Amino acid sequence: MPGLNRDYVTRLQDDLEASFREDLEQAVIDSTRWPDLIERAARSSGSVGALLLRTDRTGLDALCTQSLAEPARRYFDEGWHREDHRLRGLPTMRTRGITVDLDFTSPDEIARLPYYQDLLGSCGLRWFAGVGFEVKGRLWCLSLQRTVAQGPFEAHEQERLATLSPLLRRAALLTMMVEKARFAGLNEAFDSIDRAAMVLDSEGKALCWNAAFQGLLGLDLKLAGGRLVAEDPEAARQLEALARPCGWAPISVVVVARRDAQPIVIHVVPLVGPSRGLFAGGRTLLLGRVAGATPVPTSAILQAAYRLTPAEARLAQSLSAGDSLAEAAARFAITAATARSQLKAIFAKTGATRQADLVRLVAGLAR
Fold it and tell me: Which residues sit opposite 51 in a β-bridge?
């Protein structure tokens, strides 16, 4: 497969354990270093690449080396993770800390199974060693990949790689503690500016929330089974979509109607890249407010941030405060056509494609 480097030496480096321990210490301090860790683990183990993933999840929780970016994409996009032949090795991985293909697959099966021929074969891959470790009852796997030419992991290699399992488990637990503390600090930061905030995991369950968000909960919006639920049917459907098992829910704002009070507006902010919590599970930040209760940024801030004209900034402020386009046009004594033209210009300058996206952008500049 193009991009795969086939010049690796098929043996473990002498300093594998020592260097891996040092890398893990750095990853605990800074969780953004985990991708670097698996890159070095692949090189040190004589592998073409590596993936770090939870064995019961989709691509939301996976990390991979750049050399395996395309195979990893196909693995999830084409549904191979639901038919992964290597899942047969999980019992062995739980007991030994490691499993390899020949633990559960015969050479005849490798020659004929679609998993090996259609997926791995087309990517130039063949052999793997899965180093397993548990974090709070969840099984994770550091999946080291080799090509046909590199050959399978020998018994003495497996024995050394198995010693990495307890190191990974300890580092992952410590990383989770650090990530949870960071999320708690995030909520405290929003508390200091009186903004309601909640962090959800990849299953849509609430990990933590601040006092301001607690104040929004009641009969119309509440926590049930760890998830936000609403009495308003449309809001309930959108909140349920936040628990989708694959990919991000295509929602930027949820408006929760209430019977005896102003609606609650919840802005949905995906936590991606270094912002997400690999082991703590943080995937989505929710910022809540009562409609009309949160100040909007000044016109000067909007003009500076997005190079809006004074008229465009005024319209953006009005829409972010909850006005409809028709209401804003009436307030500023402009025609509907003029309002639409200004909104089109605002979209072009801010990159928003919907009014809900614009509300979210503007709300992010509010102080």
Answer: 64, 143
- What does pTM read for this prediction? 0.66
Q: Are strands 63-64 and 227-230 parallel, antiparallel or unpaired?
A: unpaired
Measured between alpha carbons, how far is 75 from 86 in angstroms, rounded to an integer?
12
What are the chain's domains? 16-172 (3.30.450.80), 193-290 (3.30.450.20), 299-364 (1.10.10.10)
d(CA 240, CA 99): 37
- What digits encode the pLDDT tens for the residues 50-80? 999 988 866 667 889 999 999 999 998 898 9
Transcribe 317-341 into DSSP letters: HHHHTT--HHHHHHHTT--HHHHHH
Q: What backbone phi and psi angles, to 5 degrees, belong to 154?
A: -75, 165
Q: Are 129 and 98 in contact (CB under 8 A)?
A: yes
Segment 40-50 mean pLDDT = 92
Q: How far apart are alpha carbons 116 and 86 in whole angstroms?
A: 10
d(CA 211, CA 338): 42
Per the CB < 8 A criterion, the answer to whether 290 and 261 are in contact is yes
CA 146/CA 143 separation, integer angstroms: 10
What are the residues whose beta carbons fall under 8 Å from the beta carbon of 15, sequence distance 6 or more? 44
| CA dist., res. 77 & res. 59, Å (int) | 9
Report strand pairing: 227-230 vs 221-224: antiparallel
* Interatomic CA distance for residues 276 and 130, integer angstroms: 24
Closest CA relative to residue 203, chosen from 58, 71, 93, 350: 58
pLDDT at 367 over 70: no
pLDDT in tens, 107-138: 999 999 999 999 999 999 999 999 999 998 88
- The residue type found at 305 is A
